[in-house]
Design a protein that fits this description.
Elements: H1 2-6, H2 13-23, H3 47-54, H4 68-79, H5 86-95, E1 98-103, H6 109-121, H7 123-126, E2 129-134, H8 137-150, E3 159-163, E4 166-168, E5 175-179, H9 180-189, E6 196-201, H10 209-224, E7 229-234, H11 239-245, E8 251-254, E9 261-265, H12 273-287, E10 292-296, H13 300-321, E11 326-331, H14 337-340, E12 359-364, H15 367-370, E13 377-382, E14 385-392, E15 397-404, H16 407-415, E16 423-427, H17 431-436, H18 452-460, H19 477-489, H20 501-508, H21 513-525, H22 528-538, H23 551-559, H24 567-580, H25 584-590, H26 595-614, H27 629-641, E17 645-648, E18 654-656, E19 662-665, E20 677-685, E21 689-696, H28 699-705, H29 719-787
Parallel strand pairs: 1-7, 1-8, 2-5, 2-6, 3-5, 6-7, 9-16, 10-12, 10-13, 11-12, 13-16, 19-21
Antiparallel strand pairs: 3-4, 14-15, 17-18, 17-20, 18-19, 20-21
Helix pairs in contact: 2-3, 6-8, 9-10, 12-13, 18-19, 18-20, 20-21, 21-22, 21-27, 22-24, 22-26
The chain binds one DNA strand of 9 nucleotides through residues 135-137, 163-164, 179-182, 184-185, 206, 208-210, 298-301, 332-334, 365-367, 369-371, 386-389, 400, 402, 445, 453, 457, 509-511, 541-542, 546, 607, 664, 666-668, 684, 686-688, 690, 692.
Amino acid sequence: MADIKNNPYLAHMHDAMDEGAAYNNGSTSTKGTNSAFDALVPGKTTAAQQEAAEEALHNGLTGRSFSQKYKDILAKRRELPVNKQRQNFLDLIHNNQFVVLVGETGSGKTTQIPQYVVLDMLPQIEGKIIACTQPRRVAAMSVAQRVAEELDVKLGQEVGYSIRFEECTSSKTVLKYCTDGMLLREAMSDNMLSRYSAIILDEAHERTLNTDILMSLMKNIASKRRDIKVVVMSATLDSEKFQKYFNDAPLLTVPGRTFPVEIYYTPEPERDYLESAIKTALQIHATEPEGDILIFLTGEEEIEEACRLLRARGDDIIRSANCGPLLIVPLYSTLPPNMQQKIFEKAPEPRTKGGAPGRKIVVSTNVAETSLTIDGIVYVIDPGFSKQKVYNPRVRVESLLVSPISRAAAQQRAGRAGRTRPGKCFRLYTEKSYNNDLIEQTYPEILRSNLGSIVLQLKKLGINDLVHLDLMDPCAPEVLMRALELLHYLGALDDDANLTPIGHAISEFPIDPQLAKMIISAVEYGCTNEVLSIAAMLSVPNVFLRPREAQRAADMAKAEFAHMDGDHMTLLNVYHSYKSSSEPSQWCWDNFLQYRSLKSADNIREQLRRVAVKNNIPLLSNNFSSPEYYPKIRKALTAGYFMQVAHLERNGQYLTVKDNQIVLLHPSSVLERKPEWVIYNEFVLTKRHYIRTATEIKPEWLLEIAAHYYELSNFPPCEGKRILEKIALRNAIVQDEQERKKRKKEKKDKESKEGKEGKDKEKKEKKEKKDKKERKEKKERKEKKEKK
DNA sequence: GAGCACTGC
């Protein structure tokens, strides 16, 4: 205590200690010289007390004295806008179960709020810990790293993170950053999230599928656990919706710290946004002061095209208008990491000393909207489009569609220009269009997705009444119905929509339900090892590369792996070859394969293998030289994908079974010979309808493996149906015949058995008679003898 | 004869 009193730097620590003593009901806590936390009473701290604890001589979490680095960071933390609101925040959290917090970029909410909650709830004393969720893995990881530094602890000890494939926590952990999907998984085995005293949901405005489910779950849990606190953090001004959803929760608004961005609209609508974007970029280069440019486009092809045009025309204006040199960099997620690094390179130097400055132009997809931040961007060009996922429940297909962005997304894009200094945003649409045509918010993902996997998870979470599920935006009944239907056909739900043992097993796997069903069914066919590999390969982005300049070479490389049964077996070949290569990265390069995808497939396979072992699913392989080796694998695939079958009609077109959609085999398929029956993994909707990743099957397998689905009476008419009907009829006849034969044989057996028994009896009786007679005669002879 | 916006368990 004396130390603190003598230290002018800790002026208000003194008061805090006294207050703490008062809360402790007068009990002496003078050993509090070592831990400033002694002054804190769980659930009743003040901002002053918290600040005092942060300025104490020793770290309340570790008992160690604070490092100089800690003190330096602390000074900066005090400057964050959110720190000015600490007392307000504490007041709200003390008096409410839910708090909604809106904080713009740079407010410090993600790093500071969880720390305030830790100091307030003192998880190390209370035994329950605090979680803060993020939609993305990298964010969870990097924020945890930062907060560990801020609290002067080692990452993975008192502060940790938990993401797929990486658990970086310990028994000491009091604050855990995790992806929202990870927390959802955890809830599946601990429905009340009983380990936690507070959950902080960050980036809630992004409305990812998992965040939406988690919000609903927290609402449910909070109504049953009065002790848990929930903080929902968001970046939008659409806070009323969040407040209302969380039972009229109070709102705290924290200003951000960004620079102003001037917005420019086009006076007239642009017909060709690509052309217009390029023109605008070159015009900025020719007329605006130094500063890098970010252009938002929709996809890889468009971006590469734009880069080509920019390079060509850039050279022209550099010559004619005496502009500085340009560095043009594409950016999209499937770009190899070393190419992605280029976005962080500096703009080129002027060609001559004192000449016009160079400029960097980044041409990017949505990655640059949320996931990646590029420093030095001053100008943003926003054509107003992005590719968005849409789900059509009628044909059960998710597809990507180029669509206008929302006003919220447009604001987000503009904001990217003001991170380091005041910037400008050029919108390639009219102001009128912005106000009238763009929707306010992007539709939440839950309204645009296939919910098969999510519905299963909800069932596992103990939520049975899905129709009345309390979601911020309720999903369409038809989408829900499709999900239930799928799970029912897979055998995951019974007739009353309750989870079956198979459903429990499927839900353990962090993959599509069909893939999980495939793995579980593989036990029956003795090929779980191979099916685990295929499932992993199907869960990662396409492994086959096909660079524009080397298409033929790439196709030839792929042909080396081709398997005549189809694309699934081809993937299996690739995986096996990958595993046996000595230098995987070089090997991938040589074979036109995406190393990143294969590495990830290997990771996923290992995870799936662990889940399988945990659920007593044996790891089996058939004898490779057996002729049944591949057919058995294909049967296991069919057990998962019997709802995605296409039949080649006599006119040479494939028709999907039951939905009767005309589809083409994707040109990337190895199945050039067009087998009559195929299962497919994916339905791709572009200019035409394609089925991608297909494997040949036998129609009789469908009736054998999925008899409940192939109840042909409710199928619409088509050739495939007629063939299946014939097979079913033949099966029925064969079965009848077999049964008739069986009955006949049984009868015969019975008769002959009876006959035999009869004869035996006769024989026995005869023998007995004979014996008796003999005995009698013997006896008589004996008696005669004796009489003599 | 063609694509894979972006996350995530």
